[in-house]
Amino acid sequence: MPKNKEEWKVYKNIFSEFSLRNLFKLASQGHFEELKSPISIGKEANIFTAEKEDGKLIVVKIYRLENCNFNKMYDYIRADVRYANMKRQKRQIVFAWAQREYRNLMIAREVIKVPTPIAIKDNILLMEYIGDKEVALKLKDDIPKDPKKFFDDVVKNMRKLYKKGLIHGDLSDFNILNHHQKPVFIDFSQGSTTDSANADELLERDVCNVCNFFKRHIDVDEKKTLEEIRKN
């Protein structure tokens, strides 16, 4: 593990000083030894693998503090009843965005397979690594051998979440991993409770996105899929 903050300067061209301090604190707490490889460099967050002392990997998701669409994030999060009193302060919005993903993962993991959240520090979220030697691929990059079975499993997961009071909010072939021919939902920062103001809109969009992907491979009925998820 890097022995002091000076050794973290190797990352100075990648992360802000604030993020570097938080990474150092999380490493100092024993969560990981060092960052390894980038998984995804995005507009909202940068995602890396990190190695623990025992050689096992975890995932480190670092939400950007700059160059984010704060207005869009704020509009989404204030519709969530859990964050109804959120003020329009950029850094606090990012912290809440990361915290919401952590909270949503904690709820989701009770009923479906998701990366288990490990720890959170402001804009940094540590999660379980999903994969073998290589990280599990997204659905868009790894078409299931049996698309019909995989689709049925995805719908079952969406229904389980809905019954638990949660909607993913940004579900698509970009946010579902194909791990040993089983779906693993990821990226829960837009997840909202079913009693939130935009719950119906989010669920209908999730169903539309999922069905549009699988329509390339099998016959699916968007209306019936939505009814299946919502049924008592």
Element order: H for helix, E for strand: HEEEHHEEEHEEEEHH
Distance between the termini: 51 Å
Number of helices: 6
Largest sheet: 5 strands, antiparallel
**Which structural category fits the helices and strands?**
alpha+beta
Question: For the largest beta sheet, what order do the strands appear in spatially?
Answer: 1-2-3-5-4
Stretches where pLDDT falls below 50 for ≥5 residues? none
Indicate the percent of residues in helices: 25-40%
Query: Which fold name is given in CATH as the topology of the largest domain?
Result: Phosphorylase Kinase, domain 1
- Outline, from the CA principal axes? globular
Radius of gyration: 18 Å
Question: What is the name of the CATH superfamily of the largest domain?
Answer: Phosphorylase Kinase, domain 1
Return the CATH class of the largest domain. Alpha Beta
Q: What fraction of residues sit in β-strands?
A: 15-25%
Number of E strands: 10
Second CATH tier, the architecture of the largest domain: 2-Layer Sandwich
Number of domains: 2
Description of the structure:
Helices cover 35% and strands 20% of the residues. By secondary structure, it is α+β, with helices and mostly antiparallel strands. The protein folds into 2 domains: 5-128, Phosphorylase Kinase, domain 1, CATH 3.30.200.20; 137-230, Transferase(Phosphotransferase), domain 1 (Orthogonal Bundle), CATH 1.10.510.10. Strands 1-2-3-5-4 form a 5-stranded antiparallel beta sheet, sandwiched between helices. Helix 4 packs parallel to helix 6. 35% of the residues are buried.
